[in-house]
Amino acid sequence: MCAAQTSTQPAVKDNYAIEARDLNVFYGNFHAVKNINLRIERQKITALIGPSGCGKSTVLRAFNRMNDLVPVARTTGQVLFHGKNIYDPDVDAVEVRRRIGMVFQKPNPFPKSIYENIAWGARINGFKGNMDLLVEESLRGAALWDEVKDKLKQSGYSLSGGQQQRLCIARAIAVKPDIILMDEPCSALDPIATLRIEELMRELVEQYTIIIVTHNMQQASRVADYTAFFMVDDARTGFLVEYGESDQIFTKPKDRRTEDYITGRFG
């Protein structure tokens, strides 16, 4: 992640794709999330759930330093990726974001052709191989190739909302990340497009670790192997209540607050 560190092999042998240790994020004087300790399993889907404002997206963005782009944001603690704290001074944030990709809430294709949406990101990240092949492989990986192979020169904006979101996923996987972060990726989509994205996540997890923020508990229970539940305290600071396998979280939560949330008693 720094200039001399390009290997994608983990520094230590473990099952964790990324790990937060005593993670705190501040926006100016506001303490957004506090003391988050969370180990994300490799090649699994982990869902972050909880009421609005509990810090789910803040934690997600801390995993690839997207919060750095907010001028008043400040992060303390550690986020370990391949045994290295991504917040160490010698770590290149741009390289972090290449290896830990992000798919946002609203589809955000570049104002370019379908082909260039894939090629541009790969090109600026130094890809020197067969671009046509990379574009096809990436679109196939996002289950989009058969729908767009005859219109690669058309604008990415010409696609439907669900197709645009899959184009953004294809763009993310084109740069060969280890982890894909998804921040409410289906909230702007209809039920059919949502189902396709969920099916795609189950296909992608064979190669990637996926972390998803969702308000949809049914979605979390359907697609996630692990689920983390967040709440806020009286100061509106987010904290982690409970984390475990999704079956356990949704059927036998250990914390009463988790049970109250998933059964609709609050939130």
The major beta sheet can be summarized as: 6 strands, mixed
Described by its quaternary structure, the protein is single chain
CATH architectural arrangement: 3-Layer(aba) Sandwich
Strand content: 25-35%
CATH class: Alpha Beta
User: In the CATH scheme, what's the topology name?
Assistant: Rossmann fold
| Shape category | globular
Per CATH, the superfamily is P-loop containing nucleotide triphosphate hydrolases
Structural class: alpha/beta
Helix content, binned percent: 25-40%
Can you tell me the residue ranges where pLDDT is under 50 for at least 5 consecutive residues?
2-13
One letter per element, helices H and strands E, the order comes to EEEHEEHEHHHHEHEHEEHH
Q: Count helical runs.
A: 10
What does this structure look like?
The chain is an alpha/beta fold and 267 residues long. The chain has one domain: Rossmann fold. Helix content is 33%, strand content 26%. The protein contains 10 helices and 10 strands. The chain has helices at 56-62, 93-99, 114-124, 131-141, 145-148, 161-173, 191-204, 217-223, 246-251, 256-262; strands at 16-27, 30-41, 45-49, 73-81, 84-85, 100-103, 179-183, 209-213, 226-232, 238-245. The strands form 2 sheets. The chain has a 6-stranded mixed β-sheet with strand order 6-7-8-3-9-10, sandwiched between helices. It has a 4-stranded antiparallel β-sheet with strand order 2-1-4-5, covered by helices on one side. Strand 4 (73-81) and strand 5 form a beta hairpin. Helix 3 (114-124) packs across helix 4 (131-141). 41% of the residues are buried.
